[in-house]
Write a structure and sequence with these properties.
CATH topology of the largest domain: D-Maltodextrin-Binding Protein, domain 2
Shape: globular
Distance between the termini: 18 Å
Strand order of the largest sheet: 2-1-3-10-4
Strand content: 15-25%
CATH architecture of the largest domain: 3-Layer(aba) Sandwich
Length: 287
């Protein structure tokens, strides 16, 4: 049996707590899988680059980001859905910024973690859904949430899309104003892995996925889930309850064809990807 460590990673957000609990409770080891976790504060754009650079074997990342990057040449596959419900993006500006209405934002400067990240792609999809267009020169790369805080405070950028509950403490403190929300028209997170690791360690990947799915199932049934998230991620218990009851995690590895078609359609009509007759294989087909 190949016990080479699997390098997996994700953003430092509450969605990934089931995986952290599986590591802490040694559930991967019980299936003879050695997992090494890396936190990516730069989000999906940073993780797609890490997959390309063979710095990571698998990661939890935004659906639209990895679909775009696989189409653009990333030698990876989606191996499972992870969070099957949409992501609620908070649309933020600085409390010092005079902008106070959602309909004022689409000609402003957008803070984004990286090109190809969710904070980059979602404003484009959102604008397109409203018959608006955002030009490439409207984006300012700020690397991560801390970079966005600095940029918005200095008024170097105006608007920042980020997961609503992660940024809520900054809204509550008065640092950010949330002037709108946008729900992704698809399940928000998937798990992807490099073609290299899928070829070298398919059995380990399957055992890793089963462990994650079991941990997600247990987490959704755990009466202490609210308290754990609140304490670990500095969020109010009432906010955590709303988030928890609007979120579902995958407990199997199915990736729905209709979901992928919807993602690709939205990426095409938003001109994030160029429409093609054929696309590379996006989902891992198990032997």
């Amino acid at each position: 049996m190949n016990n080479k460590p699997l390098r997996i990673g994700g953003v430092p957000e509450h969605f990934n707590l089931p995986i952290h609990l599986a590591i802490e409770n040694q559930l991967f080891k019980k299936r003879d899988v050695d997992v090494k976790w890396t936190t990516f504060k730069g989000g999906t754009g940073q993780m797609t680059q890490a997959l390309r650079n063979d710095e990571i074997d698998a990661c939890v990342l935004l659906t639209e980001g990895i679909v775009t990057d696989i189409i653009n040449g990333n030698q990876s596959k989606i191996i499972s859905e992870y969070v099957t419900t949409p992501l609620c993006w908070g649309i933020h500006t600085s409390s010092k910024n005079p902008i106070d209405r959602y309909d004022q934002i689409f000609d402003k400067t957008f803070a984004i973690s990286r090109l190809g990240s969710g904070s980059h792609l979602m404003p484009i999809v959102d604008a397109n859904s409203k018959g608006k267009e955002i030009n490439p020169n409207q984006f300012k790369i700020i690397k991560n949430l801390e970079g966005a805080r600095e940029s918005l405070k200095a008024l170097d950028s105006d608007i920042f899309y980020w997961e609503k509950y992660t940024t809520k403490p900054l809204v509550d403190s008065g640092e950010f104003k949330r002037i709108g929300e946008y729900f992704t028209p698809w399940p928000c997170f998937v798990i992807a892995a490099s073609n290299k690791i899928l070829k070298e360690q398919p059995d380990n990947i399957v055992r890793m996925l089963r462990t994650i799915h079991d941990s997600c199932d247990s987490f959704m049934k755990n009466d202490q889930a609210f308290k754990m998230v609140s304490e670990r991620y500095n969020q109010k218990i009432e906010d955590v309850e709303r988030w928890f009851h609007s979120t579902e995690w995958a407990i199997h590895g199915w990736v729905r064809d209709k979901m992928l078609k919807s993602v690709i359609y939205n990426l095409e009509i938003s001109n994030i990807i160029t429409s093609k007759k054929t696309y590379p294989e996006i989902v891992w087909k198990r032997d």
